[in-house]
């Protein structure tokens, strides 16, 4: 189906080493897109993964281990990417700090809003907001030269509704855990950031949309899955493979009359 094709497109993906990032990279590569994968410089190595999908799908893959808040590093990555590929067709803004209760529960601040640490607040602002701004601004400059481009920002259901903190209450814990304010506040920027860019560049060949995934299954405890399922209209968490179609749809001409939109993939979470 040609309208869903991204063949020979060049996709620039931040947060590419995460669960969703790798799935997005894989579906784009399987659809014959070339890839530029970015993730944190702190001990992350995407080279082996890049070689694997490049060999599997016969596409070109370039890797950068960078800090997305560092303007010089991003400028260098964009310049090198354009020099190698000649263009950047698709930007996927995935990189973000998130307190994931199915991954690093011991690292989540066990504090309510009134005691939330200022340093963690500032760190999330730097990455989730400033980093997204820096990357997008640099990529937009290239897309304007090309007179075409497609940006997909990744938000959260918590940019649409407040967290139900009962989801994070576990019977074997003496302390109530909370989905922290930093993630909720910074992700809430994304839908309106998308609308701003969509209306600003709508007449210049650049489309901008938001995708909202939620509850993607990844090493979650039985108790977390049970809590989540009770609060989900579909009664379960999302399998990562279920995000492949939505990302491909937004990245392709199948969504050519969509810009400024928010595509919600949450199993009905925000419907009640």
Widest sheet: strand ordering: 3-2-1-4-5-6-7
What's the number of structural domains? 1
Based on secondary structure, the structural category is: alpha/beta
Low-confidence runs (pLDDT<50, min 5 residues)? none
Order of helices and strands: EHEHEHEHEHHEHHE
Describe the main β-sheet briefly: 7 strands, parallel
Number of strands: 7
The CATH architecture designation is 3-Layer(aba) Sandwich
Strand percent estimate: 5-15%
State the helicity in percent bands.
25-40%
Please write the CATH class name.
Answer: Alpha Beta
Fold-level CATH name? Rossmann fold
* Overall residue-averaged pLDDT value: 92
Overall shape: it is globular
Q: Write down the Rg.
A: 18 Å
Please provide a written account of the structure.
The chain has 8 helices and 7 strands, in the order βαβαβαβαβααβααβ. It has helices spanning 19-30, 47-57, 71-85, 118-146, 181-187, 189-201, 222-231, 244-251; strands at 10-13, 34-39, 61-65, 90-93, 149-154, 206-213, 262-265. It has a 7-stranded parallel beta sheet, with helices on both faces. Helix 1 (19-30) packs across helix 8 and helix 4 (118-146) runs parallel beside helix 5 (181-187).
Characteristic terms for this protein:
single chain, 272 residues, alpha/beta, Rossmann fold, seven-stranded parallel sheet
Topology of helices and strands:
Layout: E1 10-13, H1 19-30, E2 34-39, H2 47-57, E3 61-65, H3 71-85, E4 90-93, H4 118-146, E5 149-154, H5 181-187, H6 189-201, E6 206-213, H7 222-231, H8 244-251, E7 262-265
Parallel strand pairs: 1-2, 1-4, 2-3, 4-5, 5-6, 6-7
Helix pairs in contact: 1-2, 1-8, 3-4, 4-5
């Amino acid at each position: 189906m040609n309208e869903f094709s991204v063949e020979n497109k060049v996709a620039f993906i931040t947060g590419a080493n995460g669960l969703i990032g790798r799935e997005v990279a894989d579906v784009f590569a399987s659809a014959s897109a070339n890839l530029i994968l970015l993730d944190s410089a702190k001990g992350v190595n995407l080279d082996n993964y890049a070689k694997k999908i490049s060999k599997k799908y016969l596409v070109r893959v370039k890797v950068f281990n960078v800090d997305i808040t560092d303007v010089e590093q991003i400028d260098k990555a964009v310049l090198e990417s354009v020099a190698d590929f000649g263009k950047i067709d698709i930007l996927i803004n995935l990189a973000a700090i998130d307190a994931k209760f199915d991954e690093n529960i011991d690292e989540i601040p066990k504090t309510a809003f009134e005691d939330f640490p200022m340093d963690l607040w500032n760190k999330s602002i730097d990455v989730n907001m400033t980093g997204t701004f820096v990357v997008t601004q640099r990529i937009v400059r290239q897309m304007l030269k090309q007179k075409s481009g497609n940006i997909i920002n990744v938000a959260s259901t918590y940019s649409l509704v407040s967290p139900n903190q009962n989801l994070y209450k576990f019977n074997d814990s003496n302390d109530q855990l909370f989905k922290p304010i930093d993630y909720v506040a910074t992700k809430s920027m994304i839908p309106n950031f998308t609308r701003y860019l969509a209306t600003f560049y709508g007449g210049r060949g650049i489309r901008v949309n938001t995708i909202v995934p939620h509850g993607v299954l990844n090493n979650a405890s039985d108790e977390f899955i049970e809590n989540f399922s009770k609060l989900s209209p579909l009664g379960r968490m999302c399998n990562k493979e279920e995000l492949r179609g939505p990302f491909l749809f937004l990245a392709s001409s199948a969504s050519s009359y969509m810009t400024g939109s928010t595509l919600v993939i949450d199993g009905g979470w925000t419907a009640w």
